[in-house]
Amino acid sequence: MTKIPNSKIKQHAGDILKSKTFNSQKKFMQHGNYTTYDHIVSVAERSLRYAEKFHLKVNEKSMVRAALLHDYYLYDWHNCGGPLKCYWHCLRHPHEAAKNAKKEFDMTKRELRMIKRHMFPCTFLPPTSREGLLISMADKACAVHEMRERRKLKKAAKKAAKKA
Ligand SMILES: [Fe+2]
Ligand SMILES: [Fe+2]
User: What is the 154 CA–ligand 2 centroid distance (Å)?
Assistant: First the structure.
């Protein structure tokens, strides 16, 4: 089931949510049974939750827009072609995402930097803003959650198969 963005996300990123290319991410798988679209909406929501939880003053609009576009590389990374190429994907996709975001949407330099640096420490470039740090943290937490869900589903399927 496709994730529905909350009202804050709709308020800050209506133009992005309407884009046909952006919506094409509903067909790419990210982690487990989650599509890239589900993942990026989760990261935007979680970044907002973190800011609230830690009482941090952030530019919500910038954070939401960068979170929604942090993985805007527009392909299914599972087809990257072997472990070495997948590692290359890990290093390169933040730049690819920023390039695609800049081409299609009205993005600030600061927002593009949040996208480019979200893969820290994998890419050695740390976030330079509060918003970027929250996106990077939310991204990892969402990835772990999504992979855990997949393991749970696999376990349940195994159990059901044994019973049958
Ligand atoms: Fe990423
Ligand atoms: Fe991500």
Answer: 22
